[in-house]
Amino acid sequence: MSGLVKEYSLLLKDIIMTLTKTQFLCVQPKTEHAREKFDSYMDKLHSCRIVIDREQTYVLASITNRYSFEMGKEYDENWEIIK
What we know:
The chain has 2 helices and 5 strands. By secondary structure, it is α+β, with helices and mostly antiparallel strands. The protein has a 5-stranded antiparallel β-sheet. The relative contact order is 0.20.
């Protein structure tokens, strides 16, 4: 029975890790306003953590945790997603 419990525990751990895995996007500023935030608060680091994934927008936080912003998935005036 302990082997079954161990397998179940590992399965639960995998499910929890999958559900809580942090997702990231790389972004690039398109406007002067965004460039100022990128340079000053984001330390010119492109990676951002997805805080909230909505239907048409993301809420992102810089990996420095000094700047958060909302960005459109299809089009955004200030930011673009880079690969």
